[in-house]
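re: that chain from earlier
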Amino acid sequence: MDFALFMERYGYKILMLIVGAAVLGVILAPFVMTFWAFSSGGIVAAVIAVIVFAIGIALMVVPKFWNFADKMRQTHIIEDWNEKK
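^ sequence. v structure.
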C-alpha cells in the first residue's frame, strides 16, 4: 500500500483523531492545571487562577468594555457614499 492510498483510506480518521485530541487538550487543560495546583500544594497558583477567572468574568459582565460599536461611532466619521449631493 503506497502513501496516497493509505492517506485516502485513513487520512480523515487520523485528522479527526488529531483535531479531537487538540480540542480535548484545550478543554481539559484548565481542569488538569487546577488539579495539579491543588494536589501539589500550589495554593498560590490556584488563587492566581481564581483571580484571573474573576477578572475575566468582570470584563464580560461590564457592558462598556464590549460595546465597540458605540466607541466606533464616537471616534470615526461614517460617510454614505450613495448619498446624492
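The chain has one domain: 3-75.
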